[in-house]
Queue: 2 jobs
Job 1
Amino acid sequence: MDSPPDSHDPDRREFFKKASAVVLGGIAAAVPIGAGVPLLLDPLGRREDAGAAVHVVNIDSLPEDGTPRKFTILASRKDAWNRYDDAPIGAVYLRRIEGGKVQALNVSCPHAGCFVDYASASRAFLCPCHNSLFHLDGTVAQKSSPSPRGMDSLEVEVRNGSEVWVKFQNFQAGHATKLARA
Amino acid sequence: MKTLFDWLDNRTGFRKLTREALYENVPGGSRWRYVWGSTLTFAFVIQMITGLFLLFAYSPSTQTAWESVYYIQHEMTGGWLLRGIHHFAAQAMIVLLVLHLMQVVIDGAYKAPRELNFLTGIMMLLMVLGLSLTGYLLPWDQKGYWASKVVASLAGATPVVGASIQKVIIGGSDFGHHTLTRFLAIHAGVLPGMIILLIVVHIYLVRRHGLTPRQPVRRPDVAFWPDQVLKDAVACLAVLVTILFLIVSPRLFSPDAPLGAELGAPADPSEQYSAARPEWYFLFLFQFLKYFPGDKELWGSVIIPSIVMGLVFLMPFIGKWKLGHRFNLGLLFSVLIGAAGLTYLAYAEDRQKPEFQLATKQAHASAERAVALARLRGIPESGALTLLREDPLTQGPRLFARSCASCHRFDGHDGMGALPADAASAPDLKGFGSREWLAGMVDPEHVAASNYFGGTKFKDGKMVRFVMKDVTRFDAQQKERLKKVVMAVSAEAGLKSQAGADRQEVTAIEEGRRLFADSEMRCAECHQFRKKDEDATAPDLTGFGSREWLISFISDPAHERFYGKRNDRMPSFGKEHQLTPREISLLTDWIRGEWPLAEPLASAKH
Ligand code: FES
């Protein structure tokens, strides 16, 4: 490595060498790391596409008395490189409510995401993980509940008089407000 | 800050360590020839970093390995660059190892007391080769799969223990999920771990015995820092720039060449892969093997390479003898020159083989196709191979070459681009059902040629006679009418490529349908067309060339609807179970030009 012509001063020459060694070495080390970090952060740039409504069941299969029933949601789903048609992507509790309507609740607990149970004896929803208790309409049923909010309701529509269509969605657990998972 | 460092130094003694590391004496001053060890360490560190990142996205199983690598290469941010660096740094390591070895042997740096430096170095060389062999399989593409199969079989041919070793390494009697999990464990765990240990020992020994100066020493000694460090840094950067250049260089020659490391089509044990070759630095062994056919193979695959490796291991001890150093130099250079020569021969041989060229071209085409299909619709659970297995564009030519090309041709070749040895003895099916194809059929100059009925028994049949006698005498007006009949019959096929024309020229097509029955055209004398005709003797042209028609025809050409008893040699592929219904559909769709992404992708991203 030739030194610049004006740096006859040995100190400056020495400094120049040291600085170049550090800079060049730094660049050489930074490139492989720099190539990997974008891949590591790749998930941040990906959005979960909000699913379209799916036909889950016909209203006749829901009990008249408003008892909830659990249904699996089948929809097409993308998981990294794979594409699944009609794969289970989650589950909902469906229940008849007044006015010929249907209520849909995501089974996933808003506290930390466990699968909430329906306790038929007490006609309430009970989460098996930390015992969050919810009313039939999904609201919190305890004074101090582990869950920061009630169960997540989903958009639901009765089409052609009998078909129950649900727009399935997951929300972030642990927040007092319902935030869509992006 | 200073207190923190003092505290740290007190607990670790790092200041002394750094000082020792940086102020190591370099006898005779810094030199470029000392950089190889550092560049190698650098390349190894690159591999550890990029490899670790790749592990974040790689999935080792036969249904996810190719798929996850595809995803890294084509979907994830910067994946092509990361994979490219890992791929080319591996090759750089091999080159650097050879250079380092040359420098050590030429300088006599392997002699006492540095025998162990040398031995640990050679062990690392072998381990790096092991990394390369295992890494080649991990993407689970055709190229890696078949090359690794060869290596595994050679290992399995070792007497006595071979079969068991092979079974343990590939995790069963055949390649499968456990081959990948095992190769990954070896590639990303065992070998790097051992290499790290050996590097520590190696560097410790280098430091203990010092660098070997080239005699005579003319310049004063200096400290490692900064002179030699600067040279090392420049060399490392040069290595890196070379790697980056190799990643982007394909783009310099063609604007849509893939960037970075190649990814072949997904591994398919049922699909012949004539383009199988090992990585370039193993080519010499591949070529070497060719000179040891049959029961002599073991000499080429195990015995001779082991003897050479044994001699290399013994170099430090041989070097003690009077002519030992000369012998070592001779050995090194004869191996290197021999390897270079063999590599050249391997390339030269392949260049002269048209089959190899064709196989390579086909390999690239199916790799591209697999990626295009994966991007179009995502990969099904069963893996990317399903995409290719259900793709008319991929399977059609293969099926055609296998089942049809002994008589038919497709655009003059066998579907895959090769020319069969025997002459065509049935029509060329390129564009079957299209207006051009049918126009040739009613053209006196073509109907009896080998690309239509020339090779069949229908050469003297009614159709050919009609065309040769009647059509030859047609006046311009009659020819015009015949053209409309052709349009009408061709419209039956409903070809994608002709959809526009069919839609626009409805009136002409309508007229053609009427003319078909006209006594002047004589078609209806033999053919049934769009209405029942008990006396028809020739193939029914209702729906001619449509998907349904062609599937039924290939399934059973001897059916009454088609040739009946007059059928020439064509087998009833479906009825006689020579092709499955799925295969017949694929073949049909391909002949009719119906497959996803019929227009090539505007330009794949990478
Ligand atoms: S996850 Fe349901 S209560 Fe904690």
Job 2
Amino acid sequence: MPVPYRVLRAGEETPGTVTLELVPEHVALNPFRPGQFAMVYAFGAGDAPFSVSGMDGDRLTLTVRSAGAVSAALARARAGGTLGVRGPFGTGWDEPAGRDVLVVAGGIGLAPLRPLVRRTVAARERYGEVSVLIGARRPGELLYNGEILGWREAGARVLVTVDRPEPGWADDVGVVTNLLDRAVFDPAVTDAFVCGPEVMIRVVARELAGRGVPAERIRVSLERTMHCGTGHCGHCQLGPLLLCQAGPVVSWARARHPMSVREL
Amino acid sequence: MADVPRSAVIGRDGLDSLIRALSARGRTVVGPTVRDGAVVLAELSGGDDLPYGWGVELEAGRYRLVERADGAAFAHSAGPQSWKTFLHPQRERQWTADRDSDGAMTFSQEATPAPSYAFLGVRPCDLRAIAIQDRVLTGGPHEDSNYRSRRERALLVAVECTEPGATCFCVSMGTGPAAGPGYDLALTEVVDGAGHRFLVRAGTAEGASLLDEIPHRTADPGTRAAAESAVTAAADHMGRTMPPVDLQALMRGTLSAERWDDVASRCLTCGNCTMVCPTCFCTTAEDITDLTGDHSERWRRWESCFDLEFTHLPGGPVRATPHSRYRQWATHKLGTWYDQFGSSGCVGCGRCIVWCPVGIDITEEAHALARERDAHAPAEER
Ligand SMILES: Cc1cc2nc3c(=O)[nH]c(=O)nc-3n(C[C@H](O)[C@H](O)[C@H](O)COP(=O)(O)OP(=O)(O)OC[C@H]3O[C@@H](n4cnc5c(N)ncnc54)[C@H](O)[C@@H]3O)c2cc1C
Ligand code: SF4
Ligand code: FES
């Protein structure tokens, strides 16, 4: 059963995408770890899985892109409204254990990676190189614009690329894999974290593995239909992986084979 | 408990007394009975409701009741339903949400006491199927508490198989025809020159106390031997077999086989196989809001991986083709179930074969996949 959370703030991130800050009405759920997801319910519309894009004490942040009935209802939520939240569900991003950290995000895929980036830059001194590669369709669809400068100032190398530039765009143009050449990392001692459209995940993970990042240290966050989050509805299967339990964050060592089979 | 019998022999009257004793203990007794041309599972009020004298003829895509001269009660194999109908019902309300005038939401869950079932006539394959659903619904980090309360209150009277159907392959799956663990009582039916009787064994204290309560006599060596040989003989005339290979490895290694195209050209993606399967557990969530607009209910209902919507994502379904959907079902049952839940998801009951409108046979598909793999494998790997 969901737990009611009140919307403290609802801010438009980009057209069609909002970032919601939630506080528990009464009791909070157990703490979420970066990479874990919540099932978020909008009254009457139903619920859908959303990775938390931030957590601070009892507060949860979600970034929702309007893509269908449930997400559209959530994107319409206003400060003061109530949503139902279940969770925390699934695996999270492991704490980087190597020297270098490489984060690769495509589109809304930056949302689940945001808490990891924030945690990493907050402990910047622990790591060697920290690179954050971000791809978006258009400049107007870049998430967390106001925060990226702060990540840079904290010592992360943040590179941004778009598919379709607009006048005045000074950063890169093209797919996010193009940025890999400019990221600085020593493959043997790198932890990589990847989220975005499935084709992008596949291309990036293969490329990183090809460059010598160990498959166990490439983590990807995957998306499938989810109706329960608790391992009971059967919808989220990707071959051997029941993604709400074994995922959504999976190592490339485990994801590589199922992701190479069409329509699995 | 020392003087409570652990095994005994009962007659038809004993079976009737058992049903009445279970009812007297407040249990809803469910078991096989003949209705609308099939042996269905329904509430039993006495021994006369049992399908005495009925057998079944099974084939791929075919089910027919036949009369038997010997009057046996349990000489039919698995019917169209399984116990999941009761333990994991087709539709269930999970919680309700109410919204007040300020838009604040409250959630509630009704605490209806679970019925206290007694299942009479649980086949060995179905006994394993119940254990498999237990693992899925209560064995992980999150549990389905409604399932758990129904399951914990259910008493299981197994019946060993002496007349396997033409579509049965429990021996291949290691689930029958003898009853494995998990029963409160296990019956083995014997009909021979010495009469019509049932060897009864108790698996739990409650089973033993029931046995003590009903008319019974000491298990004689003749009945024991007859029961044992009937079950042993049943193992020797299974209607179907799986290829004698590691099925998990076979499924993992044949994801790109041509055979999937062949079966997809026959499969109607109707999902019957998933509905009759005693282990298929998939469900979908539905939200229903009443006319006031301020009261909404969350229901969950069975869903089939053969439905196109099953893998709906904003970008379209993941498994768009019948090829991928049949493959999902078969490889989950026989292969990836091990990865997810530590066992096979198939118990060899044969229901999916019988109730497939076009007679698709999972054992035949597995044999074909094994042949295709072997034909393509380099000689040294065979
Ligand atoms: C682990 C995980 C994390 C995610 N994190 C985020 C995130 O941080 N931000 C974000 O924006 N998105 C995220 N998503 C994606 C998000 O869950 C989807 O955007 C959401 O499912 C969009 O669909 P919807 O519910 O709005 O609409 P729909 O696409 O309409 O889907 C609604 C639900 O109803 C079902 N449904 C819809 N239409 C049909 C139909 N025709 N037939 C049958 N069933 C149907 C679907 O199965 C779905 O569950 C995440 C997904 C996963 C799996
Ligand atoms: S295998 Fe048979 S029962 Fe199953 S979906 Fe296909 S046609 Fe229907
Ligand atoms: S979301 Fe229901 S089983 Fe994973």
